[in-house]
Amino acid sequence: GAREGRARSRVAGEMHGGSLQTRGGDWFGSLPLGTKSVLLLNVCLYVSCVLFGYDAFHEVCMAPHWVLHQLQVYRILTAPLFHGGIIHLAFNMTAFVPMASSLERLLGSVQFCHIVFLFVALSSCFHVALAVVAGALGFNAMHECAIGFSGVVFGVIVVDTHLQMVPRRSVFGFFSVPSQYYPVSLALFLQVIIPSVSFLGHLAGLLAGSAYVNGYLNPLLLRQTTIETLEGNPRASAISTHPSFVAGGASADASPGAGGAAFPAIFGGGGGAVLTGGAQSGDAQATRWWQMPTFARRNAPDSQEAFAN
Q: How far is CA 152 from CA 65, 71, 158, in A?
């Protein structure tokens, strides 16, 4: 009887473990290719650091003084990819993956990866600029050493808030705020409960996301014809035919005037209300491609308020 009980327990444990492994595999397999690649890059780099004992983060972190005065510009790209611990990594990836998946399915994998790269570079550049300002005000921001993907995460939070178009959002369930103040409130809340995080890094990400939803990054985005050319290149066929690859994406045909506010209107304009679509007015038709966003709130054939996501 005892032997049979142990056998049943072992079988039940194997079945439960197999079920968890299957669910984890199904979840990972359902992710779009760009989101999956970013997740794998961050996780693999962290695991490599653990296995090889690398912890000299001062060599790769975002250190504004070294970037400006020693021209160590490589830090703009390396700092977001390193994490100081498993909790740091898990927090960033848990926040990033759900929002990034939705965004990639809307934009397509090529444009999504391009925007993630822009957010990496721009958030790091904003970080340096903010550190210069903070240093002029007497803070020791020029000599801080920051790592982690949270700058990009906060940029994506701004975009996600814009697309959600809900009046209020909850900050970890503790309290709710108007949506346009959600990204800033989240950054401030994290700063209070975890004082060691880089506020400038988070703020830099917010500025990158806000610049995007307000259309200021449009000249840097890929044209639809460029995306089609890249996707049709025979050398990229292994990527473009991958089951997780999201081809195409939302058209850049959009007009100003709708969309949810995602950030206080410090840049002027409508606080991010530039992502919209559907029928265009005469003024919108005259807008150049680089003045238009790459994703849009669109009207379905049978609805005036449907949102394609």
A: 21, 22, 10
Measured between alpha carbons, how far is 76 from 98 in angstroms, rounded to an integer? 25
297 vs 193, higher pLDDT: 193
The pLDDT of residue 165 is 79
Q: Single out the residue of 276, 283, 216 nearest to residue 252, CA to CA.
A: 276
Beta strands in 165-256 (DSSP E): 168-171, 175-178
Active site residues: 150, 202
DSSP 8-state symbol, 216: T
Give all strands (DSSP E) within the chain, no chain letters: 168-171, 175-178
The DSSP symbol for 257 reads S
DSSP string, 30-81: HS-HHHHHHHHHHHHHHHHHHHHT---GGGTSB-HHHHHHS--TTHHHHGGG
Cβ atoms 187, 137 nearer than 8 A = no
Give the Cα separation of 256 and 271 in Å (integer).
12
Q: Which residue has the higher pLDDT, 183 or 264?
A: 183
Task: Give the Cα separation of 236 and 117 in Å (integer).
Answer: 19
Q: State the helix-helix crossing angle for 109-136 and 199-213, rounded to 10 degrees.
A: 130
Q: In whole angstroms, what is the distance from residue 97 CA to residue 75 CA? A: 24
- The answer to whether residues 256 and 273 touch, using CB atoms and an 8 Å cutoff, is yes
Are 217 and 211 spatial neighbours (Cβ–Cβ below 8 Å)?
yes
| Distance from C-alpha of 285 to C-alpha of 278, rounded to nearest angstrom | 12
DSSP E strands: which ranges in 124-208? 168-171, 175-178
Average pLDDT of span 78-105: 94
pTM: 0.76
Query: CA-CA distance, 122 to 63, in Å (whole number)?
Result: 15
Is 175 in contact with 165 (CB distance < 8 Å)?
A: no
- Above 70 in pLDDT, residue 278? no
